[in-house]
Design goal:
The complex is a heterodimer. By secondary structure, chain A is mainly alpha-helical. Chain A has helices at about 5-25, 30-40, 50-55, 60-80, 85-105, 115-130, 140-155, 160-175, 190-205. Chain A is globular, with a radius of gyration of 26 Å. The longest helix of chain B is centred in the N-terminal third of the chain and has 15 residues, at about 15-30. Classes of the chains: A mainly alpha, B alpha+beta.
Chain lengths: ~210, ~170
Amino acid sequence: MSKAVKRLKVSRTGLKRRTDRWAQTGGLATISEQTILSRRGVAQMKDLVGIGERLSPDTVARLERAALKRFETAEILRVQRRHLAALYFYGYSAEICLAAACFRSLGFSANDIIDRDTRRRRMAQAKLLKLMNNDPHPLVGWARFLEWKRLLLGGLTQQDQQRLKEAINKATLIYSFWRPELRYKVIEITDAQLQRVHPAAKWLVDNQMKL
Amino acid sequence: MPVFKLKATATVIKKEQRQDLVAQLAKERGGEAISKGPVIFEIPLGQTNRFDVLVVWHAWSDIPSEIRSEIILEAYKNDSARIAQALGVTYQEAIEQHVLPYAVHPMTRAGDIDPKKLKSAMLKHGGIDLGGDMVHLRFPTLAMAEEVHRKLCDEEQKGYWSIVQSPDPMF
């Protein structure tokens, strides 16, 4: 075999290897780009699919876990005296707790899928019932919608009713300090302010399975 | 000083009116289309055997939300146990509340297709008649919009339809 033929064979093997690698990227990068990326140790294109594309839909169980995780993060931030960030996470924890309780009372079992359209229809109902306002993160609205649904289902003890009223009070208190827009701000949140929000958020996390 | 007096108001719906709405809804559900009647969406919920019912209807305008839900449940009779949510909205409320976020739009130019034929095709597939030649074809889920889009492409001018999703203010 001549040197020329041998060289051709080698380059064909190399070409196949590179073509396979290109196919793995879903054809998003050219062969030469992909070769450069691989040589530099940069992640392949298939690894760069946005996390938004891979998020699983909500369920009551996942929401309950998320509420706890956001609360735990807020606790760490509170200890580190990062008050604004702690408040931001306490607010989300409270919102997720109440939304999860709402969906449970609306008949969703732990692993039933709650997609955006389904959630939007529930929020539309709450708004038409004048229980929720048009705020995109209506903490108090979720609490009031929850109470409305639980009362409609009936069979509540006086203690249950009291707990639902308390959930509305806690949501109202948190909402007087919390807004999602906090993420854009650099305002000072005092220790005293956080001391008011923290027990309310903790109460919601502690009681979420009873709501 | 002026005196402002506000009269207490509560919407009262007469028994006959309620029965009439239940009957119309049941008819529409049974496949008997009424002019300017309700558009009913039955939306399955994941892997469960339950479904949401969304009824878009101008007749709801004076009726409180809770009563609309009762009327829908009444029209569904034995199937009502499987309904997870019975929601009645007017078209305006549906737009305001973003419960019909997926629209199927005709992409025709003037003279491409007879407007009457276009309107009729859209109404056949659940379009909301807004008077004149104006019809909106909107859906609560992408799957429903895609299904109708496919049918319209098969039945009418291929490639003359597009699906548009309204931005979601919630997220």
